[in-house]
Amino acid sequence: APSSSPVALPPFFMRGSIIQLADGELKRVEDLKTEDFIHSAEISSELKIDSSTVERIDDGQTPNAVVIQFAVGELKAQVCVEVLLEYPFFVFGQGWSSCSPDRTTRLFELSCAKLCVGDVCVSLTLRGLR
Amino acid sequence: NVEPRSVPVFPWHSLVPFLAPTQSD
Fold it and tell me: Does B4 score more than 90 pLDDT?
């Protein structure tokens, strides 16, 4: 079970937020591409991109929350996170996706696809962790 | 084309969930 309650959506998901890539380039959050994450992780000494596949999406403990179960990395380690419906994840080759694209668009003006079971999300782990 | 001075700049990794499969299961 998830260990903590969902956190409020942080400000950097608001459309127009300025994001700095690992090479110093600045982009708006809505303009980020899969390659930006991959390239940034490649030149990071500490962080590694993992593929995290959505395996289940269940209701959370509060009305606006969901519990998402991911299979992380090559070993498909099971990780659950509880987040707000509007929390966006970046899906490989697709872009921002959330469990409630309407809410994400309304609250943050960030265009989203619907996050579905089987989607493969960008996630991070520390290099060297096993 | 992007003015960084008067607006906050967030690091790219802030946007990515940190899913570390190292917790006890």
Answer: no
